[in-house]
Amino acid sequence: MIDPHSFGWLHDAVSWLLVPSLAALLAACAIALVEAGIAVGERFHGLRRLRDGGNVAQVQAIARHRLERADLLARIPPMLGLMATIIPLGPGLAALGAGDPAQLASAVTVAFDATVLGLVAGIGGLVIGKLRRRWYEETLEAMEDAMENAA
């Protein structure tokens, strides 16, 4: 049998990750809002300016960079949300075993809130990425058509 006291250091190390995970989730939600604002600006002004500039390589580089940001936003926050969901459940279940259901309720509340934050930021990143991908493809196609018609 595994001695529960021999892995106390592991529990302490993992518990330390809860606050940074929650902070990163809050930051991810803020970044999703900022990215949504940038995407709106791109859609109504930035893409037209890039298309009129005529530099396909520049548009491809900008698209790649912005799509990578959206992809990271779609993938990392849900993982952080899962991490911040599981971390408080260990102490919460231990508290239940010790007869303290109030601490379990607190841990479950933190766990569910972390899940929601991760999903909100991830959904934002997914939607922004899908829209940007379509917008940049349309822009590049329009630029290629314009170059073919000019030739």
TrEMBL record:
<keyword id="KW-0969">Cilium</keyword>
<keyword id="KW-1003">Cell membrane</keyword>
<dbReference type="GO" id="GO:0005886">
    <property type="term" value="C:plasma membrane"/>
</dbReference>
<keyword id="KW-0282">Flagellum</keyword>
<feature type="domain" description="MotA/TolQ/ExbB proton channel">
    <location>
        <begin position="61"/>
        <end position="144"/>
    </location>
</feature>
<dbReference type="InterPro" id="IPR002898">
    <property type="entry name" value="MotA_ExbB_proton_chnl"/>
</dbReference>
<keyword id="KW-1133">Transmembrane helix</keyword>
<dbReference type="InterPro" id="IPR050790">
    <property type="entry name" value="ExbB/TolQ_transport"/>
</dbReference>
<keyword id="KW-0966">Cell projection</keyword>
<feature type="transmembrane region" description="Helical">
    <location>
        <begin position="104"/>
        <end position="128"/>
    </location>
</feature>
<dbReference type="GO" id="GO:0017038">
    <property type="term" value="P:protein import"/>
</dbReference>
<keyword id="KW-0813">Transport</keyword>
<comment type="similarity">
    <text>Belongs to the exbB/tolQ family.</text>
</comment>
<dbReference type="Pfam" id="PF01618">
    <property type="entry name" value="MotA_ExbB"/>
</dbReference>
<keyword id="KW-0812">Transmembrane</keyword>
<keyword id="KW-0472">Membrane</keyword>
<keyword id="KW-0653">Protein transport</keyword>
<protein>
    <submittedName>
        <fullName>Biopolymer transport protein ExbB/TolQ</fullName>
    </submittedName>
</protein>
<feature type="transmembrane region" description="Helical">
    <location>
        <begin position="79"/>
        <end position="98"/>
    </location>
</feature>
<feature type="transmembrane region" description="Helical">
    <location>
        <begin position="16"/>
        <end position="41"/>
    </location>
</feature>
